[in-house]
Amino acid sequence: MNGVDPGRLDDQQLIKELETIHRTRHSTLLHGSNDALRAHNDRMAELEGEYLRRHPRRSVAGGRTRAGARERGTTST
């Protein structure tokens, strides 16, 4: 494992770690070595898993569901 165990982070630290890893994702995908990308994937999964464990009933926006996406696809402007 890389970094601090996500279970030991407080909520504010966890959010900061998630923001950082999401911000660096694109660059790692495009320019990181296979090992760097693998480490990034593993760490992101650990952090996101901890967030979901703590917030199982988080608010879900209707547009971020399959039904919401299908509805957006049929709407004409």
Q: Could you characterize what this model shows?
A:
Residues 58-77 are annotated as: Disordered. InterPro entries: DUF6158 (IPR046156). This protein has one domain (6-74). It has helices spanning 11-31, 34-54, 66-74. α1 packs antiparallel against α2 (34-54). It is mainly alpha-helical and 77 residues long.
What is the element layout, followed by pairings?
Layout: H1 11-31, H2 34-54, H3 66-74
Helix pairs in contact: 1-2
Region (Disordered): 58-77
Biased composition (Basic and acidic residues): 68-77
Pfam families: DUF6158
For the structure shown, list the relevant keywords:
77 residues; mainly alpha; 3 helices; 66% helix; flat
Give a brief rundown of this model.
Helices cover 66% and strands 0% of the residues. The chain has helices spanning 11-31, 34-54, 66-74.
Series of secondary-structure elements, N-terminal to C-terminal: HHH
Q: What is the percent of helical residues?
A: 55-70%
Number of helices: 3
Largest β-sheet summary? none
Rg, please?
Answer: 16 Å
Structural class: mainly alpha
Separation of the first and last Cα atoms: 48 Å
Pfam family, one: DUF6158
Region (Disordered): 58-77
InterPro entries: DUF6158
Biased composition (Basic and acidic residues): 68-77
